[in-house]
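USER: I would love a firmer grasp of how sequence relates to backbone shape in proteins. This is the protein in question:
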Amino acid sequence: MDRNVIMINPKDNVAVAIVEIKAGQKVFGIAGPDLVARSEIPRNHKVAIAKIARDAPVIKYGVPIGVAAETILPGDWVHTHNLRAEEN
């Protein structure tokens, strides 16, 4: 296998796991520096590929899908525990 994630749009700061990724496993399939999963990433879930500051947009499909509820580090699982809807 030559990848375990898919980055949908070059503007994205998250990628989607196409298989379960174990904590400590290398994330591959994206350009850039080596990235290691900081926690288990379930299949079809998001993994941060860049640091996302608290209240900064989480970008998937090239558009914001919510904001970081806390600082999210590269390799972190991005889900409801650290992602919230943007308040208007």
